[in-house]
Design a protein that fits this description.
Blueprint lengths: L2 E5 L2 H14 L5 H15 L11 E6 L5 E7 L9 E2 L4 H13 L6 E5 H15 L3 E12 L11 E4 L5 H18 L15 H9 L3 E5 L5 E11 L2 E8 L9 H15 L3 E7 L3 H10 L1 E12 L1
Parallel strand pairs: 4-5, 10-11
Antiparallel strand pairs: 1-2, 2-3, 3-4, 5-12, 6-11, 6-12, 7-8, 8-9, 9-10
Helix pairs in contact: 1-2, 3-4, 5-6
């Protein structure tokens, strides 16, 4: 029998689920890093929109053991939950519980088996059907193979770079759609980025830029974490005019090497419909961990 516990406080959630997240911190990277960031924001007194859905959930078996976790913290419509691996029964029960709470779901993100089962439980009460709309894959690198580096240098973003970083964060998913052969706008962001967000990330030294010899910035990569000993690279964005010169490979390789040398673990997500990015990262030494994606509820 599955029991569900919902939390409105990220700190309270971590107190209950931290040990579970630590068991497989690479697979659990999104929930762990986002929750850590929100704990820090709450501690700093940064307000969040009370009208938005914001919760974390822990699933337990009949013996009280934690079997899975998820969260609903997205700040852009349709505010999709993000689910980690959990028993099928637990994911279905979560879908039923979300429907009973009166919440409207248009999309569920995360590990596909969990998202599909949750959609099944939800649509069983609300109607409709769930379908996989996009496939992603989580990779980890334990030993990086360095490529030939292009001219220029990798540097940290500065406060003066914040407007450009914001523009590129916002362009990232549209560019990913284009590279994967999908119409732009097929995938939507889940976070409402703004200049304050960029400045916080820059102050935390999480945004890195490749600067060409003439001073032009030609690539952006960010690092999330460390959380439970794991750093996740992303987004990774090169404007169209600068693609094909090896900036993404060089930046990701250098960042991966720094992460591993620090004693942390390195991971990233790829769009399975984008053969270029998948080939690049695997050539650097990244290996498949699990498949994730987006389930749309029609």
């Amino acid at each position: 029998m599955t029991a569900l516990s919902f939390f409105s406080s990220p700190a309270d959630f971590l107190a209950e689920a931290g040990d579970f997240l630590a068991l497989d911190p690479v697979v659990n990277t999104v929930v762990a890093s986002v929750t850590d960031r929100m704990v820090a924001q709450d501690a700093a007194g940064l307000a969040h929109a009370a009208a938005l859905p914001r919760w974390w959930v822990v699933t337990r078996d009949g013996a009280g053991r934690v079997t899975g976790v998820g969260m609903r913290t997205a700040t852009l419509p349709p505010y999709p939950p993000y689910l980690l691996p959990m028993p099928e029964e637990a994911a279905r029960a979560l879908g039923v519980a979300i429907a009973a709470r009166g919440e409207v779901l248009g999309r569920i993100n995360g590990v596909l088996d969990s998202a599909l089962a949750c959609a099944e439980g939800y649509t069983g009460h609300r109607g409709g059907a769930g379908r996989v709309d996009a496939h992603s894959r989580l990779f980890e690198c334990t030993r990086v193979s360095m490529p030939k580096l292009p001219a220029g240098r990798l540097r940290l973003a500065t406060d003066a770079d914040a407007p450009l970083c914001l523009e590129w964060f916002r362009e990232f998913l549209a560019a990913a759609d284009e590279q994967a052969g999908r119409p732009k706008g097929t995938r939507s962001d889940v976070v409402a980025h703004d200049l304050d967000d960029m400045r916080r990330r820059i102050a935390a030294e999480s945004i890195h830029l490749w600067e060409a010899p003439g001073g032009e910035v030609v690539h952006l990569s960010a690092v999330n974490g460390p959380s439970f000993g794991v750093c996740r690279i992303g987004p990774v964005f090169t404007p169209t005019a600068h693609r094909g010169y090896g900036y993404a490979s060089a930046t990701v390789a250098l960042l991966t090497r720094r992460i591993l040398e620090s004693g942390a673990r390195a991971c990233l997500f790829t769009d399975q419909a984008n053969p270029t990015s998948n080939a690049i990262y695997q050539a650097l030494g990244y290996e498949r961990v699990c498949d994730t994606g987006e389930v749309v509820i029609d």
